[in-house]
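Take a sample.
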Amino acid sequence: MVFQLDKVGLILRQKRVEKGLSTSQISETLCCRRLIVESIESGNWDNLPHKVYVKGYIRKYSALLGTDGDI
């Protein structure tokens, strides 16, 4: 299965907005830079670390938003 960051990022962004959270709040809770959160949401690999780390961020982000099953 191919990892499609743009689709995953869209789901996370929609859920974040539904919950009324900012990217700053997410980055503080996940202990990562806001640029990483924004890059995940936009599907931009240029500003992200290795894929393994991104998957970890996405798992934590999904759990925070309660979207584990959607991702």
User: Anything to note?
Assistant: The helical segments are 5-18, 23-30, 34-42, 51-65.
